[in-house]
Amino acid sequence: VDGTLETEFAFADFDFLLQAALCNDWQNDVLKVGQVKKPFTVERVQNDLKKYRRFTGCLVNSLDLSVAPNAIVTASFALMGATATYGDAVLSGATYKELANNDPFDSTGENVALKAQLKINGKSSNVVTSISLKLDNGVAQAHVVGQRAVATTGLGNSSVTGSLAFLYTGDDISDLFINREDVSLEFTLSGKGGSYTFLLPRIKLTSESPGEQDVFTIINSDFQALLDPATGTNLQITRKADTPSQTAHNDIPSVQG
Question: Is pLDDT larger for residue 96 or for residue 29?
Answer without folding.
Answer: 29
